[in-house]
Structure formats: structure tokens, C-alpha cells
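Translate sequence into C-alpha cells.
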Amino acid sequence: MAPGDSQDRSAWVGLWRRVDAAASRSTPSSSTTPGEGGEPEAEAGEGGPGLRGLEGTIVDRLVRRVPEDDLLFVSSSMPVRDLDTFGLHRPLPLTVLGNRGASGIDGIPSTAAGASFGSGRRVVAVLGDLAFLHDAGGLLGLGAAGERVLLVVIHNDGGGIFHLLPIREYEPAFTPFFATPHGRGMEGLAHFHGLEFRSLEFRSGVARSGGGGAPVPELDEALQWLLGRPGSGILEIRTDREENRRLRGEILTAAGRNALKAVESGNAGRGLPGPDEG
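Result follows.
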């Protein structure tokens, strides 16, 4: 593409938009079922993940429902990555906040409380269980007069982000030093601080009344319960680190495959060689 050639530049931008749209359609909606070999089938339309067990589903469904006047606070580690990957299906503006402490996940509840205090607005924060426990003392601020903070705690019993790295293959060191499972629930801390609490099972492999893990409608109802709280509250959503890694990997693989097809189709339309043709 020659510098300054607006026609070629416009075509290039158009190709990238088509590639982005193709990749986005690889994310299964609530009505999509895994295809052959367990891979999700692409589906057009509203978009957004609808797989139980996928933490990106939680972030997507939350982003759709946060009122425009609220602030969304997204923790470091997986929540901010899931927002970037899956939280794209919202027609209304939304102010998103975040911070990174010295250890990445420290001070999240405290920062959310401070954001509510400083802005005078309600804050909806999504964070992992380790970030929640790391700043358990910050829950004191959630009950302060005038502060309204809602916490969505994605509880996979440890550091799920490390399951996306090659280090996961190195047992027995991986689990105690990287995954760091703790086996603790959040209910006791919530009640100790006088906060409304609810827990939802979202792991597809866990037996429960009515079948497998929580379907998306049950997730939607739980999120609506939290957003309907007059004060501060906590929604704990139980997931499985390994299941989330597998589902996320399948979706990203399908996205890459569909993006490549869009590139090949776009290049063919312009008379250009495909990626494997030099």
C-alpha cells in the first residue's frame, strides 16, 4: 500500500473490520452449542458468549446490564482481559475504571469504595476471589454511609490466569505456587461486614437440581438481583479454572480460523494472494 493512497487505506481498514466481525461471531451466544470435537460453532446476530463455565460469559452479561449512571470497575488479571475479549456487546456508553496495585490485584475493593465516595456514584466491580481476599479489610468501606459498591466475585479458587501459561504443565509446583487454591468461600466475610450476599454455581460439571451448571438465564437473574440492591452487596459466582481455560481456548481458536477466512476472502476480492501464497 503506497503512503497517502486513501483508496487502499480505506480498503485496508474495511478488511480489518470484516476480520474483527468474523472473529467476534466466533463467540457462542446463549443459544449456541459446542460443535464437533467440543469446538464452539460461530453464530451471527446479537453475539456475546453464552457458555456456562466460561468466565467471559459473566463479564459480557454484566456489561450489558450495568446502568449508564453507574461506574464499572474491572480488576486486574482475568477480569480486564475478559472485558477486552468478550465485553463488546453494549449499545450505551459506560465509564470503566481500573487500577493495578503493586501485586496487580491488591486494593481492589478499597479502590472501588474510593471511586464511589469520590464520584458520588454507584460502582459495580468485577474481580477474582484472590483479589477479593487480598483486600478483605477494604470491605469495611463498602458499608460506609453514602457509598454504594456491588462486587461480582468470580470465584475459581485461585489464580486462573496462570492456567493460560505453559507453567501449568509443571506439577507438582504449579498448583501450590501459581494456582494457589485456598478453599475459602466469601459468605462469611460478607455477613461479617453486614453485606447482602448471594452465591451462584456456574461450573458446568457440578451436579445441581435441574442438570449441569447454571444456565445463562440463571446468571442473568443473579446479576439483576445484585443490581437491584439499594446498598452494597456481593455476588459470588463459582467457576472452574481448567474448564474456563479450555472453553476460552476453543473460542480463540475458532476466532483465529474465522479471521483467517475473512482475510483470504478479502484478499481474493482485491486480487491479492492469501496468507499461504507469499
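Note: The chain is about 40% helix and 10% strand.
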